[in-house]
Structure formats: structure tokens, C-alpha cells
Amino acid sequence: MKQNLIAEEKVFEELKKAVVETLRTEGNAITRDSSLIKDLGAESLDFLDINYRLEQAFGIKMARHFILEHIEEMFGEGSAIDENGQLTEKAVALLKMRYGDTYGDLAGGVDVDDVPSMITAGSMTEGVLEILDSLPEKCAHCGGSSWKTDDGTHIVCGACNEPAIFTSGDDLITSWLSSVQEEKKIF
Ligand SMILES: [Zn+2]
């Protein structure tokens, strides 16, 4: 369910903190439009570090695999990336459907290696918020249905204080892909 305990602004602040600690960069240079790779100099391995810091900060599990990998796994080799290493039309359509703001300008024939540079501080913030919005109606431990946060980043049960259990980033992607497939929007 959509949670309202942690605001977008707070998530962005934590994202900036994670980026600053990982890349040793200046926090005030980071805007929502900053590309982590192009503007902030992140490399692939840095994403593991940034994701880990966000996981610790919010008690969540970020996606380990990018959506393109999930598409290939669910719909077969070549379904997302063709033999020339370019995004398929299906992959472009799915990226736009799911992450419109980030990939709105994407067209066919994009090299898969160019995709990670489109990841921005804003799109990572959205990714965290989506996971936080998988907050269950009821606490898995005691069945209580009131949530609270004492530190502003970890949501815990208002009755038993156990941490909320969120859906993982990977599971959110695969269940979204399954729903698209069921509705036959693309495949
Ligand atoms: Zn509880």
C-alpha cells in the first residue's frame, strides 16, 4: 500500500548521502536529473555500494538485476537485447511504460551499454519509493495495522515494533512484467 511516513524529499536526501559516501563527491552538485554515471562519475560497482547503503538506510532490498535482465529471463534470450547489442523495440516499450520519465526520449537502436548512464538520482529515488510503497496492510508478526517510523527512514509496526517487510526490488519488477504479459500489452 502507498505509505505516507517517508516523504520523497527524505528519500532523495538519503540517496544523496549514499552517493556522497560512495563517490566522495559534493552533495550539493547532485540534482534529481543528475546521471550517476555521466554527471557524477559512478561506475558499475558503485551501484552495489549505493544500493547497499540505501538498503541499510530503509530496511529494504533493492533490485539486484536491471529490468533488461528480467525481460531476458522471463521472455527468452534476445527479447530485450538483440544480436547487435541493441535494445529491442519490446525492451524500449517496456522501459517507457515502466520508467516513462527516465526513458521518455529512448528510441529503438540504442546500444545496451548506453542505458545505465540514463539512471539518475531521481530515478533511483523513485525506485526506493516504489519499494516503500509495497508496505503490507498488516504486520507479518502480530497482524497489527498501524505503522510508524522513529528514525524517519525505517518503518516499524506501531504495535510490536517489528520492522515492516517490503517486497524486494526484483520481485516488484518481475510481478510488473507478469501483469504486463497477462494483459498482453506487449507480449
Ligand atoms: Zn506487529
Overall 3D form: globular
Q: Helicity range of the residues?
A: 40-55%
What string, H for helix and E for strand, traces the elements in order? HHHHHHEEH
CATH topology call: Non-ribosomal Peptide Synthetase Peptidyl Carrier Protein, Chain A
How many helices?
7
Class computed from helices, strands and strand pairing = mainly alpha
The CATH superfamily turns out to be ACP-like
Largest sheet: 2 strands, antiparallel
CATH class: Mainly Alpha
Q: Detail the poorly predicted runs.
A: none
What percentage of amino acids are in beta strands?
A: under 5%
Mean pLDDT: 93
Number of beta-strand segments: 2
CA-based gyration radius: 18 Å
| Heterogens | zinc ion
Task: Give the total of domains.
Answer: 1
Q: How far apart are the first and last residues' alpha carbons, in Å?
A: 28 Å
Walk across the major sheet and give the strand order.
1-2
Protein architecture, described:
By secondary structure, the chain is mainly alpha-helical. It has one domain (8-133, 168-182): ACP-like (Non-ribosomal Peptide Synthetase Peptidyl Carrier Protein, Chain A), CATH 1.10.1200.10. The protein is 43% helix and 3% strand. The protein contains seven helices and two strands. The protein has a two-stranded antiparallel sheet with strand order 1-2. Strand 1 (147-149) and strand 2 (155-157) form a beta hairpin. The longest helix is centred in the N-terminal third of the chain and has 16 residues, at 8-23. It is globular and about 55 Å long. Bound molecules: zinc ion. The site of zinc ion (ZN) has 8 residues, from loops.
